[in-house]
């Protein structure tokens, strides 16, 4: 049995409703840093490898955990979160002001739609997740992955056997992803039985410890 541990990044300034920034430069909020510190204490697994996305907030979430174990995280481009809209097109907007743009994108249900040169198409995003799925058989037991919410939603969807190619696939995935409990620093265990199937379970003990952190 092989286990991969997936952790969504801590609360970012964007999650907290902050003004639009470049997708890869969004840092953790002060509360997100508290979440990362708590996670490092309660995630007791001794990692064989630790992977982060190219986005700052995953590296900052992994930092206390890696310091605890005296290791360096490895950056994996396949873990990059879905960049729905070019930040230039929503420059200066708050989280609440960005919501109509995101809603309009998903309502269009077009896997080839690109909202600005610095945005992804859904098709490109799906290919990144496919790339990671191809890597999974070669990852060692106790690999810890620090990633993103929509990204993990699509990984979960794909491992269930569903497609993500057509407009209807995209719409069905969005409904699934929005219903998947994925708070910041949510932790999941992906267990593989002899290379055939992946079983995903939430680590409720860790998730409850993160949820209990008071806001200051």
TrEMBL record:
GO terms for cellular component: cytoplasm. Gene3D superfamilies: Phosphoglycerate mutase-like. GO terms for molecular function: phosphatase activity. This is Histidine phosphatase family protein.
